Amino acid sequence: MKFNQWFTIATFQIAARELPKIRNELEGHVLDAIESHQQTGLSKLEAEEMAVLELGDPLEANRVMKQTYLTASDIKKVDQKISITPGWLVLLATVPIGYALYLSHTWSQRIMGLMLLPLFTEYVYLRFVARAWTTEKRYANLQWLRLFNVLVSTAAMFGLYWIYAQSSDEIVRNGVGIQLGIALVMTALTVWQFTELNVLRKLRPRA
Amino acid sequence: MNLKGSLPALILETLTRGPSHGYEIAQTIKRKSAGVLDFKEGTLYPALHALERDGLISASENLENGRTRRTYTLTEKGLKNLTEERQQWQAYSGAISGILGGAS
Q1: Does the beta-carbon distance from B47 to A64 stay under 8 Å?
Q2: ipTM over 0.90
Q3: Which end of chain B is more exposed for a tag (fewer CB within 10 A), N or C?
Q4: Which pairs count as long-range contacts for A155-160, CB under 8 Å and 24+ apart, including other chains?
Q5: Are A33 and B23 in contact (CB < 8 Å)?
C-alpha cells in the first residue's frame, strides 16, 4: 500500500482543517522510516512498503483519529448549533421584548430592551467569527462572551423585577412581566450553551 | 501484546529523556519493548496531539534538512501525570504478579 492510500483511509471523515498537520507529521515519519530502511539494504520501493506497513492498519488508525480530531460531522454539528441556537434565541426574544418596549412608559424599562444587544453580538460572533475557532484564545473569547451575556441578562432581570415591584400600573407590569420571562429564558439558554457541544473539547489548540 | 491505553504513558516516559520528535519516539518505544508490544506507528500522532492538547507535552517546530519537524517536550503537568501513572502501574503489576507468580 502506498502512503497516500493509507492516509486517505486513516483520515476518512476527519475534518479538512485537521488534515495538513496530520499529513505533515506522518509524511515526515514515513520519509524517516524509508531512509532508515534503505540503510539496511532495502530498495526504495521495499522501504516505502515497509514504512507504510509499520504505520499499522489504517482502519484502526482512523478509529483512533476520530476520537482525537474533529470529524466532518463534528464540524457540521457545531455549525448547525452556532447558526441555529442563537437564531432561535433572537427570534424568541425579539417579538415579546418589542411588544414589551411598545408598552414601556419609563426610560429604565426601555433600557432593558438593550438586552438584545449582547444577544446579537453573540450571534454575530458565533456565526461569522467563531467558524475558525481552532485556537484556545477564540474558544476563551466565546466563553467570555457567553458569561457577559449571562451577567447582562441577570442584571436586566434584577432591573425588571425592581420596575415590576415599584409599578402599580397594570400595563407596565404586563410589559415588564413579559421582558422578565424572556430575560429568564435567555439566561437559562445561555448558561446551557456553556455546557453544550462537548465536541468543543477537541477544539483546544494543537498549533 | 496490545498496547491498549498505555501508549500515552509510554510517550511521556520516552520524553523524560529529553525533547524528541515522533519518529524518534516511535523507535525508542519499539526498541525498549523489544518487539513485545504491538505498536502501530500510525496511532502515535493522534496520541501525541491529544497529550499536547491536554498540556502534558508541548511542541515546537524547527526546520531540519528542509523538512519541518515537530519536537515534543514533557511539561511539568506531564511529569506529574507520569508519576501518577507509574504508581498506578506498579500497584497493578504488583497485584497481578502476586496472583500469577504464586500460581506455579
Answers
A1: yes
A2: no
A3: C
A4: A156/A112, A156/A115, A156/A183, A157/A183, A157/A184, A157/A187, A159/A108, A159/A111, A159/A112, A160/A109, A160/A112
A5: yes
